[in-house]
UniProtKB/TrEMBL annotation:
GO terms for molecular function: ATP binding; catalytic activity, acting on a protein; magnesium ion binding; phenylalanine-tRNA ligase activity; transferase activity; tRNA binding. The gene is pheS. It comes from Virgibacillus necropolis. PROSITE patterns: AA_TRNA_LIGASE_II (PS50862). Tetramer of two alpha and two beta subunits. Belongs to the class-II aminoacyl-tRNA synthetase family. Phe-tRNA synthetase alpha subunit type 1 subfamily. Keywords: Aminoacyl-tRNA synthetase, ATP-binding, Cytoplasm, Ligase, Magnesium, Metal-binding, Nucleotide-binding, Protein biosynthesis. This is Phenylalanine--tRNA ligase alpha subunit. InterPro entries: aa-tRNA-synth_II, aa-tRNA-synth_II/BPL/LPL, Phe-tRNA-synth_IIc_asu, Phe-tRNA_ligase_II_N, Phe_tRNA_ligase_alpha1_bac, Phenylalanyl-tRNA_Synthase, tRNA-bd_arm. It is found in: Cytoplasm. GO terms for biological process: phenylalanyl-tRNA aminoacylation.
């Protein structure tokens, strides 16, 4: 049996030496060292040996197994190295080729407009506040003097999630939350930028999602003239020092009196053109003095405190400022369009 084991070892070593494929090497391992392999077959005959021969043959068999195993591992390492070298040769990269151009991003136009507006109002003492986009019916409507049966609710077709939860239709709920949080304890001077949602058909001038910035100033002795002065400063900052403004009577449930603010058309300087529909003026935002009911619901004494509020759309402001005729351009992520305004 000793001669048979030595012969089997030499035979295996010769095959290992001659093989050039990892698959063949694995087949040799199975053929000689597997459960049904040649070495196992030889060892099954050890039962016929005497007690003295068994330890000797057992030791020889272990040496044969170790020798074949070591040879297979050495050969496997050589073959794997060859495979890697071949793969690297196939995948050689020509580092002298020019690289693909990388598109460099920049702030979105709406982000830039919003930040410019924030900077302006922060400079006038306003603070920036934020609130949830999924809002309660109470803060979105009722706390702003819009009870459930109020006809003005029809002005804002809303995305309701439940009977009491909806996607906010304006950022005014942030004002109501802020005032109620303070419970009439101190003045409020804030703006609240953010996304709002209304059920609207998307076209060149409408979108179901857009941005809005609300402003609020509540304190003792706040007057309509204060509102006009701040809005005039805003118009000149955003559209140029030569812009004029006018305030027209309007209606909003949460302000009384309410106004719409127009700016003089920068295309025709107020003389009348197709942009301003021959009027010389372009509507830009809504505003007014905070309704006493809104103050009272928030915990402010309306006989002591007064205030004004305004709401504007950065989308519309950007369209007017840069002559953009389709609001959908802001949301299609066309880098060719957005790139025009990186330095704006």
């Amino acid at each position: 049996m000793k001669e048979e084991l030595e012969k089997l070892q030499q035979e295996a070593l010769d095959k290992i030496k001659d093989t050039e494929q990892l698959k063949e090497l694995q087949a040799i391992r199975v053929a000689y060292l597997g459960k049904k392999g040649s070495l196992t077959g030889v060892l099954r005959g050890m039962g016929k040996l005497s007690k003295e021969e068994r330890p000797v043959i057992g030791e020889i068999a272990n040496n044969v197994r170790e020798t074949i195993t070591d040879a297979i591992e050495e050969k496997s390492a050589v073959l794997q190295e060859q495979v890697l070298e071949q793969q690297l040769a196939k995948e050689t990269i020509d580092v002298t080729l020019p690289g693909r151009p990388v598109q460099v991003g920049g702030p979105h136009l709406l982000t830039t407009i919003i930040e410019d507006i924030e900077d302006l109002f922060i400079g006038m003492g306003f603070e920036v506040r934020e609130g949830p986009e999924v809002e309660t019916d109470y803060f979105n409507f009722e706390a702003l003097n819009l009870p459930k049966d109020h006809p003005a609710r029809d002005m804002q077709d809303s995305f309701y999630i439940t009977n009491e939860l909806l996607l906010r239709t304006h950022t005014s709920p942030v004002q109501a939350r802020t005032m109620q949080g303070l419970k009439g304890s101190k003045p409020v001077k804030m703006i609240c930028p953010g996304k709002v949602y209304r059920r609207d058909t998307d076209d060149a001038t409408h979108s179901h999602q857009f941005t809005q910035i609300e402003g609020l100033y509540v304190d003792k002795h706040v007057r309509m003239s204060d509102l006009k002065g701040i809005l005039d400063a805003f118009a000149k900052k955003m559209f140029g020092e030569d812009r004029k403004i006018r305030l027209r009577p309007s209606f909003f449930p949460f302000t009384e009196p309410s106004v719409e603010m127009d700016i003089s058309c920068k295309v025709c300087n107020g003389e009348g053109c197709s942009v301003c529909k021959q009027t010389g003026w372009i509507e830009i935002l809504g505003a007014g003095m905070v309704h006493p009911k809104v103050l009272e619901m928030a915990g402010y004494d309306s006989t002591v405190y007064s205030g004004f509020a305004f709401g504007m759309g950065p989308d519309r402001i950007a369209m007017l400022k840069y002559g953009i005729d389709d609001i959908r351009q802001f949301y299609t992520n066309d880098i060719r369009f957005l790139k025009q305004y990186h330095q704006a």
